[in-house]
Please model this.
Amino acid sequence: MRASLKIDIQDIHLFKQKLLTWGNSFDTFVFLDSNDFTKINKEFTYYEYDFLAGVNVNKDLTASEFNGFKKLTDFSNVNDWIFGYLTYDLKNETENLKSENIDELLFPATHFFVPGFVFTCKSKKIEIHFHENDSTIEDITKLILAIQNTEISFSEDKTNSLKLKSRFSKNEYISTVEKLKHHIQIGDIYEVNFCQEFYIESKINALETFFKLKDISPTPFSCFYKLNNNYLICASPERFIKKTGTKVISQPIKGTIRRGKTEQEDILLKEKLLNDPKERAENVMIVDLVRNDLSRTAKKGTVNVEELFGIYSFKQVHQMISTVVSEVESTTNIVDIIKNAFPMGSMTGAPKIRAMQLIEQYEKTKRGLYSGTIGFITPEKDFDFNVVIRSILYNEAKNYVSFTVGGAITSLSEPEKEYDECMIKAKAITDLFNI
Model:
């Protein structure tokens, strides 16, 4: 059984830094942060937590790309907090697909764990959830003191000498977009999400990198995930799927434009994004795909589009976000809800299976955790999962740093502009490393 202890913290920002530093000393640690996004975009609903963290392992699950959902179904039967991730390559379990491109990161395909300690923060109120059989109130009081006494130290910036490498040249990328457009023109697909990997062969400080990324690009679904020598450093703006009671929410992003240098330019750019035929076309196609995915587990007639073409502002870009909802039976298995919507349509294309086949054909690297999902499941069987984009993946044992960016290719896509959009999305990362 879990018990909990509420604590008052005056400086939440400082406590988060200390909690991250302390948590990073464990082999397994996850930190999910909304970065006060509801204060910035009050109309963007369905946020419950300021942040959550899972520290240390009480019980865990590691699975392959062919049995992750099956094992998670059994693992999720516990009435406890569960944190974890699903890589994009779990598509090979849901459909007759394969992943044969190179993989330099070598993350497990699936990882979930029941933490020893869970930290939640709502409306600036922090609560620590712990197992009564393992810890006492006195133990938790000492633990909080240890966190508050944790020293935060930053090393000198040594990133100036890092060399960024790409799997595609600009000409190769543009040529591949032309080939994908041909598939669209002959009716093979309507839309496909095409991505390219950038990588650095060097050692980095994962936690410091996360701190810097949060400063450069604070987003509502950011995440720091440590699993032994593997790290995810994530600044995702996108929710994949959430369940609250019997309500299911998905909020796909399709449509991106840069921020303006002035308030007036910002307004004009937002209007340009809202009225862009190409961006609207790709957004509505993915909304239709999400509606179909949610309908597989929804009560009949309950799938609805709550918002179409919502424009939301982030530090680096403006995004077009739509909100699709459904209702499920209280007895519906939560893993079935996730599995039937996975992988998320915003990262595949439509029709989904053919788009994923072309992704495997034309991309050069295995996606792995990129365009997968990270999130949590509550003891009440509610859950919330993000889309792993705008992220750095780091294998410390191999000194391999990777980040992938992409965009939706449609019949209206202009290859040069698609490449430029990738560069806009990559800017938060290249700025981070002074490249």
